[in-house]
């Protein structure tokens, strides 16, 4: 058997226990196949001769207390199985009936719920949502004057509705959906608005799905959880699935706790999300697989329960972006799209699934850890290997020799010319990159290197006249996405300093000049983005290095003078450094830009200013 022992994690004892094969499996899977999956985990990049991983070991490596898996074959759930514990404190084991928060995998289920309303004529996919909403209206502005927001645009993320990360709540501060849309306390979100011309650009939007949730409520006259239960969960026999916030009592004993990246249980275990359509779903992999199979069957004109073939095809076809349909991502394999799926996370959870568009196979994997994303992909690749999925696995690389002199020559620091750098070091003839936790670089083509755990490559280039070394850097992010084109990094001189390094060493004036130079030459560079500078300023503020924090925040208001948040951060730094008069000036500036800023009003009251 796969499970043979107990083993200790740094925070809690993880008991890795398998449950029985799911009762809904119509095909009795061989124990050999399951063991093959459990012992065949593969990294993002395959190197000839490199061994596969064991699931138990990788759960320990990634500090993931619990995992649940469902495998789909021939449009049926072939098997499902749980590993580890629901809660590192209580040690309750994961079973096939354990439910997990699935984050953005909620969007696909919300999409199919909305499409059932389209099918019966209750919801018009092409009509202005403001003409279908009765309890709330999307605020008018210049962008909305140039186009209308429709349910279709909400579903494919081209509505122009603003981007906003998911925000979690507790029962005693849970806002209603309308409070969240309006940006009213106790909601922590800003008012939902359009900040792009509708229909012109793909912009992933959680608030867009909050609007979708509200329009479904308004046209159906039902609470969203009840609507999904009636339209989707009951017909598909998803008995362990709910949008309810919090998890209803009948399912609570099956609900996993969320965990930090060190396997420590979150203080409140399970957080709440009024934007249910974007990230509030709780489910088991087997239940979620039933939703996936419904799309697969409908798309190929097999008998389905809730979705027509036409709507299923729309779900898995490109719209505003080549790689996104309606509530699902589309995966390119060799230039063709064969799979659809999604990854999703919320506080303490990571979930993912992948499904073939025409061949009826796939898998659903849920974890109860912030660090579950890489583990999910490794398990997916193991499943793909065990069941011979076509067009899924990347090619296997054959290593080329690298001598010690060339390894030494390539070693050094490299910068993009702005405020980002990485170090390459050598040990004998092997290279390692600090940017990815000192991952080893493998030579696979002439001057080209890969790492095992990230898609992409480094390619070294040398100018024959100057002997200057540059490197082409093209790697995916930690979710496997390529967010930008390849970037060129130059090898740095030994005494060369980046702006952030100058600031860290106390060279404030020189650092400020360097950041201003970046603003002039490359204002879109991420090193001077509002969010990046805000995070940098707060790092110094947390260290009580007030002069440096204020210098960074002053740059942010200089670069982004229309941002109330920039002024709010600067005012806070002045206040914490004892410069109350300046704090008052900048909190007042916040209110000029955002008259309903509750934080600015509260801080001004604390500073003796009555509002």
Q: How would you describe this protein?
A:
The structure is a single chain. The protein is of the alpha+beta class. Among the domains are: 101-334, 3-Layer(aba) Sandwich (Beta-lactamase), CATH 3.40.710.10; 399-491; 525-606, Serine Threonine Protein Phosphatase 5, Tetratricopeptide repeat, CATH 1.25.40.10. Helix content is 33%, strand content 17%. The protein is built from 20 helices and 20 strands. The protein has helices spanning 31-38, 55-62, 106-119, 151-155, 177-182, 206-220, 224-233, 249-252, 276-279, 285-299, 309-315, 373-386, 404-410, 499-504, 508-521, 530-542, 546-559, 564-576, 580-593, 598-606; strands spanning 7-8, 13-14, 46-47, 66-73, 76-84, 100-101, 282-283, 329-333, 336-346, 349-356, 362-367, 396-397, 412-415, 421-427, 430-433, 439-445, 448-450, 456-462, 469-475, 487-491. Strands 13-14-15-16-17-18-19-20 form an 8-stranded antiparallel β-barrel. The radius of gyration is 26 Å and the shape is globular. The termini are far apart.
């Amino acid at each position: 058997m796969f499970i043979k022992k107990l083993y200790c994690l740094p925070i809690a004892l993880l008991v890795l226990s398998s449950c029985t094969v799911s009762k809904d499996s119509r095909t009795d899977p061989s124990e050999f196949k399951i063991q093959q999956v459990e012992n065949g985990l593969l990294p993002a990049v395959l190197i000839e001769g490199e061994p596969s991983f064991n699931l138990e070991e990788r759960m320990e490596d990634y500090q993931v207390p619990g995992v649940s898996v469902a495998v789909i074959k021939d449009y049926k759930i072939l098997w499902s199985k749980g590993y580890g514990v629901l809660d590192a404190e209580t040690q309750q084991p994961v079973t096939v009936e354990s439910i997990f928060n699935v984050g953005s995998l909620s969007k696909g289920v919300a999409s199919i719920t909305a499409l059932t309303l389209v099918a019966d004529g209750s919801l018009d996919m092409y009509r202005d949502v403001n003409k279908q909403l009765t309890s709330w209206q999307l605020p008018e502005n210049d962008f909305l004057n140039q186009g209308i927001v429709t349910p279709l645009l909400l579903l494919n993320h081209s509505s122009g509705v603003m981007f906003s990360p998911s925000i979690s709540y507790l029962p005693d501060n849970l806002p209603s959906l309308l409070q969240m849309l309006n940006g009213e306390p106790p909601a922590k979100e800003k008012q939902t608005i359009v900040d792009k011309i509708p229909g012109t650009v793909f912009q992933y939007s959680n608030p867009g799905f909050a609007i979708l949730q509200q329009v479904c409520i308004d046209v159906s006259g039902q609470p969203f959880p009840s609507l999904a239960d009636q339209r989707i969960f009951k017909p598909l026999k998803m008995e362990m699935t709910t949008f309810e916030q919090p998890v209803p009592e009948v399912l609570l004993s099956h609900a996993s706790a969320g965990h930090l990246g060190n396997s420590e249980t979150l203080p409140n275990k399970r957080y709440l999300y009024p934007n249910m359509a974007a990230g509030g779903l709780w489910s088991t992999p087997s239940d979620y697989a039933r939703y996936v199979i419904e799309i697969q069957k409908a798309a190929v004109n097999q008998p389905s329960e809730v979705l027509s073939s036409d709507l299923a095809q729309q779900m898995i076809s490109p719209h505003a972006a080549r790689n996104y349909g309606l509530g699902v991502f589309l995966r390119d394999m060799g230039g063709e799209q064969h799979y659809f799926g999604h990854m999703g996370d919320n506080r303490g959870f990571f979930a993912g699934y992948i499904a073939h568009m025409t061949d009826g196979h796939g898998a659903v994997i849920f974890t109860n850890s912030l660090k579950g994303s890489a583990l999910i992909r490794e398990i997916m690749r193991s499943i793909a290997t065990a069941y011979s999925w076509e067009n899924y696995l990347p090619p296997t690389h054959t290593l080329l020799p690298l001598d010690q002199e060339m390894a030494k020559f390539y070693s050094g620091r490299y910068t993009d010319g702005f405020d980002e750098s990485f170090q390459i070091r050598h040990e004998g003839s092997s290279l390692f990159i600090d940017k990815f936790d000192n991952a080893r670089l493998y030579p696979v083509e002439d001057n080209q290197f890969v790492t095992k755990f990230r898609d992409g490559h480094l390619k070294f280039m040398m100018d024959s006249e100057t002997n200057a070394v540059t490197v082409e850097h093209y790697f995916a992010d930690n979710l496997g996405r390529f967010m930008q084109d390849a970037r060129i990094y130059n090898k740095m001189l030994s005494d060369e300093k980046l702006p952030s390094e100058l600031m860290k060493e106390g060279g404030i004036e020189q650092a400020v000049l360097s950041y201003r130079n970046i603003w002039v030459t490359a204002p879109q560079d991420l090193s001077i983005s509002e969010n990046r500078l805000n995070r940098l300023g707060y790092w110094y503020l947390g260290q009580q290095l007030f002069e440096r924090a204020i210098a960074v925040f002053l740059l942010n208001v200089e670069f982004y003078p229309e941002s109330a948040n920039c002024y709010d951060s600067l005012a806070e730094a002045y206040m914490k450094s004892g410069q109350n008069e300046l704090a008052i000036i900048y909190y007042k500036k916040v209110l000029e830009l955002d008259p309903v800023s509750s934080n600015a009003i509260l801080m001004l009251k604390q500073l003796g200013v009555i509002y």
